[in-house]
UniProtKB/TrEMBL annotation:
Signal peptide: none annotated. Residues 421-770 form the Exocyst complex subunit EXOC6/Sec15 C-terminal domain. Residues 52-221 form the Exocyst complex component EXOC6/Sec15 N-terminal domain. It comes from Erinaceus europaeus. GO terms for biological process: Golgi to plasma membrane transport; intracellular protein transport; vesicle tethering involved in exocytosis. Keywords: Coiled coil, Exocytosis, Transport. Belongs to the SEC15 family. Component of the exocyst complex involved in the docking of exocytic vesicles with fusion sites on the plasma membrane. Residues 82-109 form a coiled coil. It holds the Pfam family Sec15_C. GO terms for cellular component: exocyst; plasma membrane. This is Exocyst complex component. InterPro entries: EXOC6/Sec15 (IPR007225), EXOC6/Sec15_C (IPR046361), EXOC6/Sec15_C_dom1 (IPR042045), EXOC6_Sec15_N (IPR048359), EXOC6PINT-1/Sec15/Tip20_C_dom2 (IPR042044). Residues 260-280 are annotated as: Disordered. The gene is EXOC6B.
Amino acid sequence: MDRAKMAEAESLETAAEHERILREIESTDTACIGPTLRSVYDGEEHGRFMEKLETRIRNHDREIEKMCNFHYQGFVDSITELLKVRGEAQKLKNQVTDTNRKLQHEGKELVIAMEELKQCRLQQRNISATVDKLMLCLPVLEMYSKLRDQMKTKRHYPALKTLEHLEHTYLPQVSHYRFCKVMVDNIPKLREEIKDVSMSDLKDFLESIRKHSDKIGETAMKQAQQQRNLDNIVLQQPRIGSKRKSKKDAYIIFDTEIESTSPKSEQDSGILDVEDEEDDEEVPGAQDLVDFSPVYRCLHIYTVLGARETFENYYRKQRRKQARLVLQPPSNMHETLDGYRKYFNQIVGFFVVEDHILHTTQGLVNRAYIDELWEMALSKTIAALRTHSSYCSDPNLVLDLKNLIVLFADTLQVYGFPVNQLFDMLLEIRDQYSETLLKKWAGIFRNILDSDNYSPIPVTSEEMYKKMAGQFPFQDIELEKQPFPKKFPFSEFVPKVYNQIKEFIYACLKFSEDLHLSSTEVDDMIRKSTNLLLTRTLSNSLQNVIKRKNIGLTELVQIIINTTHLEKSCKYLEEFITNITNVLPETVHTTKLYGTTTFKDARHAAEEEIYTNLNQKIDQFLQLADYDWMSGDLDNKASDYLVDLIAFLRSTFAVFTHLPGKVAQTACMSACKHLATSLMQLLLEAEVRQLTLGALQQFNLDVRECEQFARSGPVPGFQEDTLQLAFIDLRQLLDLFIQWDWSTYLADYGQPNCKYLRVNPVTALTLLEKMKDTSRKNNMFAQFRKNERDKQKLIDTVAKQLRGLISSHHS
């Protein structure tokens, strides 16, 4: 029973499932019925389901049939109506076909017109699209054309800007066109072309700047000169040494202005054309003469192209090379001032350009680079000036060079370059300038001394007297009282030498101008140079004149007089230097002039030369002496040569009236001593082997003539018998032999009051030996043989005693 209940339950579930599946089949779309049917086939009650399906189909068929029977009459009516409509429709179709045919016939022209209109509209649309595209491309083409025009006119920086706009603004809008691709491909080439062309312009600029550096520097130095002249006028500061009536202009005014040969060279070189200007017109600034636009353009171009560092390195490298060329002086620079001027102009021009570049560009050059170039330029310039200035022997050229160096330094100092080393070097050139001045003045002094007549200067009128007194500081009240014509005691070389010393001081002062030296330094420099002039140059010139072979006693006397007056004028030279330097001589460390010493030394040398010259003249007269030492005859008069000698000495000492008293006295005493010594040597010389008493008496007459000359006082100032003492040795010796007073001589020998104190036993013995054998040949004693023998014995005895005196003296 349970099984029956279970079977009944299962059949109920199966029937419900089948009912569900059937409802799904009825309600589900045909395309989705597959899963439903699959569940039927998967189940086990397939047959029963088919039976229920068949039952359901039959139920639906019966319902359809019932429905069809209910609506059949309406269906038939509808079919009848439809058949009627078909006929009407056929008629309508025929009408429509006919109407269509007519319409087709009538609209054929319209269709043709519409086709034409369609083509026109299509063309219009194409044209509009083309215009739109062209309007988009036209700015690109215009920019490209503008770029080409700018390239042709060498406006490279605007061309680069145009290229930037073209690349970043216009070309991206039309990048799909082929011509744009061509342009894009050409852009790197155009950039390189702009770089190359701008670099070429820069090279032309650098080359032209190198060629025109001297003109730029010339203008800059001229501008600095005019500015300094204006400053001097404003400040109204009197320059050292302004008391001099006329002076050279310290600086060189450059007359040449910058000129260009053609407009093309003007553009290529960057040098602007400047018309010649009058001296009183304003000189244009050096930077106004140069067109720096090639540098600026090239710098901007390389900056935009991202190659600024490359450009800076190239520019600096090229300018360094140009600096080395500019600093290389020409080999013949020292020959003329123009050589130095051109050298300085080139250097100034170079650094004026660099200074302008420094202040007008952002870092193209920097201060460190400029300072490095200046240090190199300064060292090379100083070395070149030291070398070339050493060849210069003309003081005027050295002075002009100094003025040019000062202007060179002042010009560069305006642009901020340190120039202290240049002024230090000028102090070195100052020493060389002093040497060249000394050489020049040596020639001047030599000409003055050679051309002088060594005679007092005659003046015949008051005008001449005042003129000479104005040339040389000389005051003599007694001379002023004398009537005309009268004479100055000195010769012409005194005022000439004095004025040349002043000229030398002026020349030294010229060099010290504008060197930024203090008055004390200028004073010290002038005094040291003047001392060199006096102690070396003038002293040597005077010594050379004094030592000349053909110098006469008159000339020597005049030299002594001249140097005496020049010595007195030294204090006026001191005052002259003080006046032009405004440094008092009492100032500490002030150098004193050594002129007094110089002229004293020259005077002493002249005095010595007078003494020597007198002695030589005396020797010349003594060479004319012709004594017959074997003669027994006496002429009762002095020898002719000695008479002439005494006359010469009298006339010579008469010239000595203008000499200082001591000089004349010394010269007279020296001459008398030399004459006495020479006469003694003449008497005792070895060639005179024998002499007679008569010859000795003749010699005694000559000595008496000399003593008479000494007593006559040829030079005032001697005390009585002072000048005769020069002949005392001869006098005592001759008295001893002529008076034959040997007993007195031998008895009193060695005593202070001895009558023959100045007779030397050796001298006496020598002369006695010469007289020993002459008695045998003397006719006067031929008949007195006994006396002759006694005389000979006496001579032998005296000679023996003299030898004893000599030997005892030596022992």
